[in-house]
Amino acid sequence: MLRTREDPVNPVWDHDLNVVLPTQDMQHAAITMHHWPDYRPTPLYSLPAMASTLQLGQLWVKDESQRFGQGGVKALGAPYGLLTLLGEALLLPPELIANGQAHDRCAAYTAIAATDGNHGLALAWAAKRFGCAAHIVLGQAVDEGRIQRIRDCGAVVEVIPGTYDDAVLLAEQRSRKDHHTLLITDTDYHGGLPVTRAIMAGYSVLAQEMAESLHLTPPTHVFLHCGVGGLAAAVAAGLWHVLDHAPNVITVEPTRAACLFASLAHGQIMQVPGDLSTRMIGLSCGLPSQPAWQILRRCASGAVTVSDELSLQVQHTLARGIGSDPRILSGDTGVAGLTGLWLAAQNPLLQQAFELNENSRVLVISSEGPQPGQVI
After folding, report:
1. Which of 17, 49, 181, 347 has the CA that lies 20 to 30 A from 168?
2. 294 and 256, same structural domain?
3. Alpha-carbon distance 243 to 177, whole Å?
4. How far apart (Å, rounded) are the C-alpha atoms in residues 163 and 276?
5. Mean residue pLDDT across the chain
6. Are 189 and 272 within one domain?
């Protein structure tokens, strides 16, 4: 699918975006907060042989497999969202909570969220670190391995007979019953949730790291995979601030759960009903997040959907490496963005529509590593 931007000229950051998305000041605050003793920027790899195979000028892959030892980029978002809400609830500087100096006071609170796996794991890890409890709600499609990792971090896990979208609504309901239950959601169906803005500010640390690694060589294309779109939008917003212009984003989703594809095609938020199951489990979402939609509708020049079969093929290719390229172990969800690029670069119609050629400099994110014990 090709979608022409509403504004044929590069869109500008406007007041409406400041209302729903993290501002540059919020991003700077998040960057400061993530400079914990165990913080390390994750590597940005150049893959020249794969770029040549796809007839591209340059290809970079940001490898999130070792983020805080949690194996995924979500460890940037949930901890910062939880820090923000605990700081507000306890009237304490977030630094004291992050440094473990407020465990006794944090113990009165429970963090709750819905997840397809990685957000819940990151929240459970953060809650244990800061001294509060965690309650994670999951839809029935999440595999036992992901569920057990969340349990191993000390969280209470609740699996419901429904989808991720059903889990989001249930977590919201539970949070309203007790002011000591803090909703740490990276999905905002209505718009205006401060915690979602904070989580997106946490994700935007990724954009700052990538910009520093790329120095003065900005990407011409950024292929970003989407579930509800929060991570993709946060990275796009972060790059927008850093580059001082909107990045050229192509969204990527599983064929069975392509809510942003449908929304971009119709020019308004659309919900995808029915069976959303996919091996890219973290993207098994039927309704976009409102703040994510606000940024992606402005800077997404196109959207593609990818099959489970192709994502598995690309996952294996990335793990084996091409030529002397570094070998990157990506998870089932993490490889989706590269899968979208792989599809587009080898499809003449999409290649032309997205203006992919030997001068293109493409950036993708491997947002998670494999699950423990998974052989790729």
Report:
1. 17
2. yes
3. 43
4. 8
5. 92
6. no
CB 188 within 8 A of CB 291: yes
**Structural domain containing residue 145:** 74-92+105-194
Q: Which residues are catalytic?
A: 74, 116
pTM of the predicted protein model: 0.93
Residue 97 in domain = no
User: For position 1, what pLDDT does the model report?
Assistant: 52
CA distance to 162, 244, 271, 316, per residue, from 6 (Å): 35, 19, 21, 37
Closest by Cα among 286, 296, 336 to 167: 286
134-140: long-range pairs with CB below 8 Å, 24+: 134/110, 135/110, 135/111, 135/171, 135/174, 135/181, 136/112, 137/112, 137/113, 137/167, 137/170, 137/171, 137/174, 138/114, 138/164, 138/167, 139/114, 139/163, 139/164, 139/165, 139/166, 139/167, 139/284
Q: Which residues are CB-contacts of 182 (< 8 A; sequence separation ≥ 6)?
A: 82, 85, 86, 89, 109, 110, 111, 112, 132, 175, 195
* Length of the chain, in residues: 376
